[in-house]
Structures are given as C-alpha cells and as structure tokens.
Amino acid sequence: MEPRPVRRSQRQSASKDSPSKKSRKETGREEVGGGGDENEMDVEESAEHVEENGEQEIEDSSHNTHQPEICPGCMRYFWRFVLLVLLSTSACLLAYKIIPILRRTADSVKHPPRAVEAEKFADHLTLLETQFPSQRSDLWKRSKIHLEKHLNTAHPTEPVSLIFTSGLKAEKTLKCLAQGLASSFSSALNASVLHIDGASKASQDSDEVKLDVDSQLQAAFEGDKPVAVIHRFEELPPGSTLIFYRYCDHENAAYKQVFLLFTVLLPQDEIQNRQSLKEVEEAVQDYVKARLVGSGNQMAFNEMDADKYGGLWSRISHLVLPVVSEKEVEQKGC
C-alpha cells in the first residue's frame, strides 16, 4: 500500500493556515477591545447627561415649590382690615374706661356733694350704745365702720344697707334700736327718716304695696329723708319686695346717697350669744326665703321665686347683725 500523503499535506496546510487564524483571532480581539472603549465612552456620556437632567429637574422642582405671589391689592385690603380691628379694639377699651367716669360726673352734677358731719354720727352712736348695753360689741363696731365709710364718701357709687334681726322676746328692742341707728345716721346729714311697717301691709295686695313703697321711697330720697327703715321686712307681700331691686342694686341703684335699714323678726325667743354672725345670717336668709318664696314652680313675672329671691338677698344682706332684748326697753318701749 502507498502511504497516505494526503493527511500530511492536510496537516501542513493546517499548520500553514494557523498563522492566519491566529491573526484573525488577534484582530478580533482588537476589534472587541476597541468596541469596549467606545461603549465605556457612551456610558460616561449618558451618565453625564443623566446628571445634567437631574440637576435641571431639581432646579425646576425648587422653582415649583415657591409659594405663589400675593397680589398687592389683596395685601392692601388685609392691612386695612387689621388696622380697622385695632382701632375698634382701642375704641372699646377707651369707652370701657371713660363711661364709668362720665357716669360719676353725671351723678355728681345731678346729686351735688352732701353736707356731712361725720362726728355727729359718731357722737350719736356712742350715746345709743349706752342705751342698749346688752348688745354685742360686733354690732357697734361693724355698723360704725359700715356706715362711716358711706358717709365719708363724697360721691357714693351705691347705697348702703344692713339688716337687724332678733327673736320674739326682743321685738321692741329691735324696733327701737333700728330707729336709733337710723336717726344717728340722718343726724350727720341734718335730715329725717322714713319708716315703713311691713306688718301693717301683710294682708294687702302685692302690686298695690309695691307701688306704695316705691312712691314713698322715691319721695323720701328726693326730699329730705335719705334714710329709710323697713320694719318687719319678712311681713311684706312677697311680690312687693321686688321693688327693692330698684333701690339696692349696687351701682345700678336709683339713689346712691341713701341708707336702707331692714329688720327681720325670727320665730324664736332669742338669738343666742354662741351663734356666730354667719349662722345668724343663714338663719335669716332661710326664714325670709320661706316667707317670701312660693311653693309653685310656675311664677308670674311680678311674683317672687327662688332665683329672684337669691338676687334680692345678695343686694340687701351686706351686713346682718343680731339684736338681743334689753329688759328696760321691752318694758317701757323706745
């Protein structure tokens, strides 16, 4: 057999072709390498482009977050409104301070200063104390301070009032002492005293009594009687007592340079010395309420009820003082 030269030649041709293949591989690698560089450049350019777009978007978003501009006309109206509110508030505060002054000025023109001799009141009160030696020291001390304060005020802003109360065994003492204190006060004003007896009006029509008491008080206070004693206040017809709102309503009272003294007779023999002034006041309040306030729930406007009584009591009960019996006075009278 002949040797196979074809295979050797094939090997030689393969070996001869290998450099070209090798060169092609190298060329392919170079082409691949060159393509990689170009891709890297494209990536960098796209990244820069993204960053630029991001910065622009951030700038745009920052511009978009700005608040819209307010028109100058709106701001002008707003500040005008603020100025109007400030001026209105200032005017209200000024009126709040000036109106009371104007009222006092008007009262001083309508009611000129009183000619007061306060020392006369002190002298008469000292004499009265000797005539009623059994009374508590609190009665003299507190009534003196309470009434002198009003006398020493040139233009009082409200009337002065107090309540004397006693048990059944001191009825005459209660009446005489009330008269004596009222006379002592009126002596400082060189004036007289009006006396109203509630017990004598107990069975009369409430509206008629109310009109009668009103006319008496008005005539007295506009005349020469700036002092009124309302004896046995608890005996007045309930509805008639509403008239004292007009005369005892603090700074809204119709007359301010006056003194109203109420007396209340409690349904017990005597007020004990061990009872405090607070206990006495509560006893008087409860008793008068029981006498004046009706039991019905529906009340007419001109009748007394619990709410009206509460308001009235707060106006007349500035000072409640107990009176005990004086043996000589109970036997001989005033």
Automatic annotation (TrEMBL):
Native source organism of the sequence: Collichthys lucidus (Big head croaker)
Family of this protein: Belongs to the TOR1AIP family.
Biological process per Gene Ontology, one example term: membrane organization
Pfam families (alphabetical): LAP1_C (PF05609)
Transmembrane segments: 77-96
Domain Torsin-1A-interacting protein 1/2 AAA+ activator, chain residue ranges per copy: 115-334
Compositionally skewed regions (Basic residues) per UniProt: 1-10
Topology within the bilayer: Single-pass membrane protein
Name recorded for this polypeptide: Torsin-1A-interacting protein 2
